Amino acid sequence: MTTHTRPAPARPDTETTPGAAAQRAGWIVTALVTAFLGFDAVTHLLGVEQVRDASADLGIPDHVIPVCGAVLGILVVGYLVPRTRAMAVVLITAYLGGAVAVNLIAEQPAFNTVFAILTAVLVWAGAWPRDARLRTLLRA
Question: How far apart are CA 119 and CA 114, in angstroms?
Fold first, then answer.
């Protein structure tokens, strides 16, 4: 009589843990994305003239600009906190999806849309090597 035993499933945090080089690359990408999104949030919160002008071109009223800055600022902070990183990545992606939609509706140059999409990809690329929960989400 033969008994078949299944091996225990690997833990998500050890199954596909990236190496040290990938983790360092993740930190570098995270630093760059955080600097960019943080700067964007601050310019919205301060109501910088270029932001107001660009928003007016998109049909966005002035009173919405600081709200967008506050939302993005909170999400960037969440992106830096390990405990909230996975949720922040998903929500930043949604925020940038809104930017894509606004750019498409306003018939902005393709670069604006592609830039928002690339930023979302970089948000994921920075966090993925450092967060097992995100790797688990992407595993089929």
Answer: 9
H or E stretch covering 11: none
Rounded to whole angstroms, how far apart are CA atoms 81 and 48? 28
- The whole-model pTM stands at 0.84
Q: Tell me, what's the pLDDT at 18?
A: 86
CA pair distance 126, 30, nearest whole angstrom: 5
Contact in structure between 123 and 31 (CB atoms under 8 Å): no
Q: Is 120 exposed, middle or buried (0-12, 13-18, 19+ CB in 10 A)?
A: buried
* Residue 136 pLDDT level (bands cut at 50, 70, 90): confident
For residue 103, count other CB atoms closer than 10 A to its CB.
20
Cβ burial, residue 10 (10 Å; 0-12/13-18/19+)? exposed
Chain segment 69-108, per-residue pLDDT in tens: 999 999 999 999 999 999 999 999 999 999 999 999 999 9
CB 133 within 8 A of CB 98: no
